[in-house]
Amino acid sequence: MWACTTSVDFSLAQFIQVIVLLSTGGANGGGYLASKYVVLAIYCVILILHGLINSLSINWLAFFGQLGAFWNLAGVFVLTVLIPVVAKDRASMEFMFTNCYTDDTVGIHSKVYILAIGLLTSQYSLLGYDTSAHMSEETKNAEWSGPMGIVVSVALSSVFGWIYLVALTSMVTDIPSLLDPTNDAGGNAIAQALYTTFRQRFGSGGGGVICLAAMAVSIFLCGTASVTSNSRMGYAFSRDGAMPLSRLWYRVNKHEVPFNVVWLSVSVAFVMALTSLGSQVAFQAMVSITTLGMYIAYALPIFFRVTTARNSFVPGPFHLGRRCSLVVGWVAVLWGALVTVLFCLPVAYPVAGINFNYTPVAVGGVLLLSLGAWVLHARFWFRGPITTVDT
């Protein structure tokens, strides 16, 4: 989850870099291209803002959560209508749904292989739907509203996200030019597509920059929710004594917010991004923990639910029934196992140090550290979640 905050906020910093570049004339028009140190400074400011927001009371966090939901839905609706209207050149339905672009520079020509590793993007975009569960202790009627929050977030993300992607893809007519690092957006395909679309229609790419700014707000609100989720998980683990210095993190301020662990989350996320200064490969390995690590974390409790706890598990008020729960549970476990394998595959050939997929190394390291800590130390004293209320 800390790596998730790193990936969201650092991508926002890079996104802001592209917005500034296009706003000042683009890469080919003398625009300002921020250095990696400036990008890191922007990232630091974003993290501080997220830390400050998450230090406020739960009422403020609820406001930002509602704002995020409204902004995303309204933004998707506006862009879905606006993009096809503005675009002079639009891709055909056949091109959007059947064309598979193979880039010679990465050495992969199998469409099936490209589809398989391309699932990473969709899996990443659906992460974080468990945030409502992490906020359950601060939610009314949590035993019902928590699960419903997960179901609704997945449904809305899937449906509206798919519609949004169709609208974006309709602008894609010349893929190589969008990926070209020498284009106005410095190789950012989405930014270049929007910028070109508005410039062809109105003679200026200003409308595209405004659309990018609206997207940046969405990413910012997503980062806010990510830090919120980090802090609540850290608080819960500390309450159970499962984190180093648990007594320090298991504290709340006058607003009943886990203030210390909020800033711990922000600090760790900043340290993770420092790897970007030395090696982009190292940074990508750090961020790769996000998608694969979280899907493993999602799948493990489901796996134990449908195996060792199959007969002893006591369902809450929200459940799918005995048979459907097992079917859906096994589908989730098998899907988690599938993507775990896919995301460990090479993403370019021939495999070299500069393109090596370090995901299995990064995630495997976390798993080994966790298992080692359990076998050598935690199994002698850890007894699971601590009950703090009467049942």
Question: How would you describe what is shown here?
Answer:
The chain contains 16 helices and no strands. The protein has 391 residues and is an all-alpha fold. The protein folds into two domains: 1-89 and 128-278, Up-down Bundle (Amino acid/polyamine transporter I); 279-385, no CATH class. Helix 2 (36-53) crosses helix 10 (206-239) and helix 14 (280-306) crosses helix 16. The chain is globular. The mean pLDDT is 86. Keywords: Membrane, Transmembrane, Transmembrane helix, Transport. InterPro entries: AA/rel_permease1. Its main location: membrane. One of its GO terms (cellular component) is membrane.
**Which architecture name of the largest domain does CATH use?**
Up-down Bundle
Which structural class do you get from the secondary structure elements? mainly alpha
Which term fits the overall shape?
A: globular
The fourth-level CATH homologous superfamily of the largest domain is Amino acid/polyamine transporter I
Count of runs of 4 or more consecutive helical residues: 16
Query: What pattern of helices and strands is seen along the backbone?
Result: HHHHHHHHHHHHHHHH
Helical percent range?
Answer: 55-70%
- Regarding quaternary structure, how should these chains be classified? single chain
Largest sheet: none
Organism: Sorghum bicolor (Sorghum)
Pfam families: AA_permease_2
Protein name: Amino acid permease/ SLC12A domain-containing protein
Main location: membrane
